[in-house]
Write a structure and sequence with these properties.
This protein has about 70 residues and is an alpha+beta fold. The protein is about 35% helix and about 20% strand. The chain has a three-stranded antiparallel sheet, with helices on one face.
């Protein structure tokens, strides 16, 4: 899976990142490498949390799509 991540320079120093496709998925770090590592962990956590909260009913179909 490939997601777009926007990295912003923080006013107080360092950087912060957001993933527009995953609402609320943000992280920060002192360096670009830090923020890259931290946002990857945030994405993994977001996806795991979403997987645990999404439950299909007996009449629903589940379709996996790769883009």
């Amino acid at each position: 899976m490939t997601l777009k991540v926007f990295i912003h320079k923080a006013e107080e120093g360092g950087y912060w990142a957001e993933v527009p496709a995953l609402p609320g998925c943000v992280s920060q770090g002192e360096t670009i490498d830090n923020v890259r590592t931290n946002i990857r962990e945030a994405i993994e956590g977001w996806l795991l949390a979403e997987e645990d909260t999404a439950h299909a009913g007996s009449a629903d179909r589940v379709l996996e799509v790769t883009v």
